[in-house]
Design goal:
- The protein folds into two domains: about 140 residues, Alpha-Beta Complex (Aspartate Aminotransferase, domain 1); about 220 residues, Type I PLP-dependent aspartate aminotransferase-like (Major domain) (Aspartate Aminotransferase, domain 2).
- It is about 40% helix and about 15% strand.
- The strands form four sheets. It has a seven-stranded mixed sheet, sandwiched between helices. Strands 9-10-15-14 form a four-stranded antiparallel sheet. Strands 1-13 form a two-stranded parallel sheet.
- α2 crosses α10, α3 runs parallel beside α10 and α11 packs parallel to α13.
């Protein structure tokens, strides 16, 4: 009997792909809880509130009415019109036609589409760091080089005009800007956006602005969009948004882009060869979210603001860690660089990964290493958790750190 040939290798591009650190830590929390272990999970970026009841009822009605079939690849027209109205109301009256909107399977899918529609081999994309874990990897999967531009705590973890200008090369094709930012919670003021726009006017590059957390900003901060600050750049600005964070609808998987017709058409064609349309019932639920009361959103926002303040107070009471004040989202990026090199519970803390591992093993508190967000020496903590859990979690952290 002849020997069969060995299996061929996997695609080389997978060597560039790193498993999602947030998903990995969340899975470990799930596994521990399945075994009955008391774990406080502050790793996953997901509102801990229930989806508002009127949205759930709309989903049920949609199912009963037959929303179980394919829709237009870019989403049902009523939803795209609602997105256009919602965006104009929130972004200074800058309007988009429904043909300039593509609804996808979550904002992550929207960003993936954009990477493949805008970038290719030899291109560069500027990504300010700390950054969401998927920006660099998605750029690399598209064949492009992510240019990581480090931001500083003293600048509020925000990209400056000078740093932006210095990072642009003849190969630059796009800038990825997240405001409010995951993982820092930093958000750009109108003046800061205007300064970036002055630089961007000089260079023909795409500007991808991830505003998935734009509805969740806190005391004293006025959320503004680059789209309204620099309407002259409208043809190059692509806004990414969705219902996951704003309406506590992560499992519905609905995100979208607002872009020029050319970019929208490209993403529509690309999506048509990958996922086709998002789930029909999820689209109808998203439509109900945008057209219904925003009272639950404001209640969640207020709760997140209280939790943010609680986290800052808890951090202030523990020597050797600190945190910039988040303007929005529901994350705190804890500076633990002073802890590196210490010996805790018989373990030498070599880096943020080691500290995150020790916290999970010794205190059953789950956070995500900052290294996953291009922020070595930090830990990302999501305060999308109850105040009781946050207090208990910090008590456990304080006990370990002594």
């Amino acid at each position: 009997m002849s020997k069969s040939a060995s299996a061929p290798s996997l695609a080389a591009r997978l060597e560039l792909l790193k498993p999602s650190a947030t998903a990995s830590f969340h899975q470990r929390v799930v596994d521990l809880r399945t075994r009955g272990v008391d774990v406080l999970g502050f790793g996953v970026g997901e509102p801990d509130f229930d989806t508002p009841s009127h949205i759930l009822e709309a989903a049920k009605r949609a199912l009963s009415s037959g929303a179980t079939r394919y829709t237009s690849v870019r989403g049902i027209a009523p939803l795209r019109r609602a997105i256009a109205r919602d965006s104009a109301a929130r972004r200074g009256g800058i309007e988009h036609d429904e043909s300039e909107i593509v609804v996808s399977v979550g904002a992550k899918h929207s960003l993936y589409n954009l990477c493949f529609a805008l970038l290719g081999p030899g291109d560069q994309a500027i990504v300010p760091t700390p950054c969401w874990v998927s920006y660099p990897d998605q750029c690399q999967l598209a064949g492009a080089e992510p240019v990581l531009v480090e931001t500083r705590p003293e600048d509020g973890f925000k990209l400056t005009a000078a740093s932006l200008r210095a990072a642009i090369t003849p190969r630059t094709r796009a800038l990825f800007l997240c405001t409010p930012c995951n993982p820092t919670g930093a958000a750009y003021s109108a003046g800061e956006l205007a300064a970036l726009a002055e630089v961007l006017r000089e260079f023909p590059i795409w500007i991808v602005v991830d505003e998935i957390y734009a509805a969740l900003v806190y005391r004293g901060f006025e959320q503004r969009s680059l789209l309204e600050i620099a309407p002259d750049l409208r043809e190059r600005i692509i806004v990414v948004d969705g219902v996951s964070k704003r309406f506590a609808m992560t499992g519905f998987r609905i995100g979208w882009i607002l872009a020029s017709k050319a970019v929208a058409s490209a993403c529509d064609a690309l999506q048509g060869q990958t996922t086709t349309s998002p789930a029909a019932v999820s689209q109808h639920a998203a439509l109900a979210a945008l057209e219904g009361t925003l009272e639950p959103v404001e209640q969640m926002r207020q709760a997140f603001e209280r939790r943010r303040d609680l986290v800052l107070a808890q951090v202030a009471g523990i020597a050797g860690i600190s945190c910039n004040v988040p303007d929005g989202a529901f994350y705190a990026l804890l500076d633990v660089r002073a802890q590196l090199g210490r010996s805790l519970a018989g373990t030498t803390i070599s880096d943020d990964v080691a500290l995150a591992e020790l916290l999970l093993e010794q205190t059953r508190v789950a956070v995500v290493p900052g290294s996953a967000f291009c922020a070595p020496g930090y830990l990302r903590l999501s305060y999308a958790a109850s105040e009781a859990d946050l207090r208990e979690g910090f008590a456990r952290i304080a006990k370990l750190l002594g």
